[in-house]
Amino acid sequence: MALTGPGGPVMTREEVDRALARLGTEREAVEASLLALQDHPGRRLLEGAELTGRTRERWEAAAPGLQLMWNLFDTYSEALAAARAVRSRRNRPSQSELIELTELLRGSGVTVSGSQLPATAGSLTGGARLSEQVSLGELVARMNDWYGRIIEVASAADAVWSALPARIDLLLAELGRVQALAGSVGVHPGEHPAGDALDEIGKELASLRSEVVTDPLVFWTPRPAAMSAPGREPVGGTVETGRYDRAARTVDDIRLELTDLLRLRDDADERLERVGETLARADATLAEARRARGEVLAKIAATEVPTVPGPASAMRERLAQADQLRQHGQWHRLAPLLDTLEAASLRELERARESLTAVTAPLAVRAELRGRLDAYKAMAARRGMSEDPELIERYDQARRMLWSAPCDLRAADYAVQRYQQALRTAQQQASQQHAAPPGGGPVDGRPYGA
Question: Which of 141, 157, 187, 306 has CB atoms 3.0–4.6 Å from 216's, for a disulfide?
Answer without folding.
Answer: 157
